[in-house]
Inverse folding.
């Protein structure tokens, strides 16, 4: 079993023989809440297994140190790398846009982390940036991707800073610009910011996007334009940390 | 006459013989509005002078290029340096916190600019940061300084980013922390950010603070703590750009 206790969600994967994903679960409350316990219960219930059936548990994420009963705690970055490599064996660069940070990982052929860059000090380009903009636009953040696909003339957002960009969005709104064009401009702004960070770590085929923001098709398309490359978003994009933890658990048993 | 057309205010100074400040005016609307015309009219009216009495007009600030009829346009930084040096002849470092940017200037003995650093890309530490926090705290931004003086135990704000710091302030509020302690923590956060920038240009006695945020006594005190130095805030702190422009106008006549 691999568990990933983040700041806003708890995720888990049950893996059989280091190969087969038996069950996955996501609870949208993170460390410091009941999320960690609930995700474990959910996994056991849905897989019809007992805690004693788990041969090894590895835990990752921001809340990994508060959890008792794991065989190992392993850093998020290593788990993400391993999880993504399992899903997309020929991955080179992983771009992970979370709610409050951006990470770019460079992987070697075996899926080991060879370099990474991270921004967790500035909200620009993160999920939080999109939350702020969705608030101003009075739109659900989950709708942004779809709406932006209708844009024919994305606006230019010149400020990177969330606060200054918010003012620009308000000006565009009061000038009567279409929401789809504003949202498309917002996605281009996020992509510019994230692409700059990713280029610092290196862009190596295949490029894979994970993290909550990878569900936003508008950001993914804007990232493809910014990098001039196709980007793959695995179906289990939110679960790569927990999956990597489960793979480490399997490895730990076999050492 | 020196005029300073900023993004949020228009300011002017009438100077006699390069020495005597005859009249000053501030209109709280900037370039692109009627502010520039109004500040000029106000200066002439209050000084009982005619436009033809002005021997030379120099204009500075963001809107300087849109103004017709000036002898010269001179950059803000040079005008600020000159204006501050006129008010505080032994100034070394000038720290200017505006509504949307932070500047730190290093001056030589003659009041000429020898180096500067500027941040206009990030709202952290600027007047805008304080505006956002005042909004969350439902407090007038002009009251922040005074309220913070009552604090006995300032909170720690760990994020520099405006967006993340705003979340911290909201948490403190919902945990029932006193407003004065939260505001004092906000001022310490601004001071930390600004002091780091100022150190990059160099801290040389005397240290002078100008710009809108210099009116906030809480930020000034927190800056003194952060730098371990006394800071002087000239009475005409908002007018140093216009004053410098007027000094340049006088110089231009005498060359
Ligand atoms: S640029 Fe804006 S979003 Fe980034 S740290 Fe500064 S205030 Fe925060």
């Amino acid at each position: 079993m691999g568990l990933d206790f983040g700041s806003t969600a708890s995720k888990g994967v049950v893996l059989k023989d280091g190969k087969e994903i038996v069950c996955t679960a996501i609870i949208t409350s993170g460390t410091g809440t009941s999320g960690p316990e609930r995700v474990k219960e959910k996994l056991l219930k849905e897989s019809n297994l007992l805690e004693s059936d788990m041969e090894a548990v590895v835990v990752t994420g921001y809340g990994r140190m508060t959890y008792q009963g794991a065989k190992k705690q392993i850093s998020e970055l290593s788990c993400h790398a391993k999880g993504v490599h399992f899903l997309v064996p020929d991955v080179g660069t992983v771009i992970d846009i979370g709610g409050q940070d951006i990470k770019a990982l460079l992987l070697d052929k075996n899926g080991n982390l060879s370099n990474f860059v991270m921004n967790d000090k500035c909200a620009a380009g993160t999920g939080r940036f999109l939350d702020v903009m969705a608030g101003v636009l009075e739109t659900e953040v989950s709708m942004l991707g779809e709406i932006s696909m209708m844009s024919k003339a994305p606006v230019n957002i010149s400020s990177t800073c969330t606060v200054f960009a918010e003012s620009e969005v308000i000006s565009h709104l009061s000038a009567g610009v279409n929401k789809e064009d504003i949202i498309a401009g917002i996605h281009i702004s996020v992509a510019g910011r994230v692409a700059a960070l990713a280029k610092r770590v290196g862009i190596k085929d295949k490029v894979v996007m994970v993290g909550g923001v990878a569900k936003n098709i508008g950001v993914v398309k804007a990232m493809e334009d910014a990098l001039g490359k196709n980007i793959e978003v695995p179906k289990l994009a939110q679960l790569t940390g927990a999956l990597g933890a489960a793979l480490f658990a399997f490895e730990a048993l076999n050492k």
Notes: Residues A 122-124, 161-163; B 122-124, 161-163 surround iron/sulfur cluster (CB under 6 Å). The interface with chain A takes residues 100, 121-123, 128-129, 132, 159-164 of chain B (CB under 8 Å). The mean pLDDT of chain B is 94. Chain B has two domains: 1-88+237-255, 89-233.
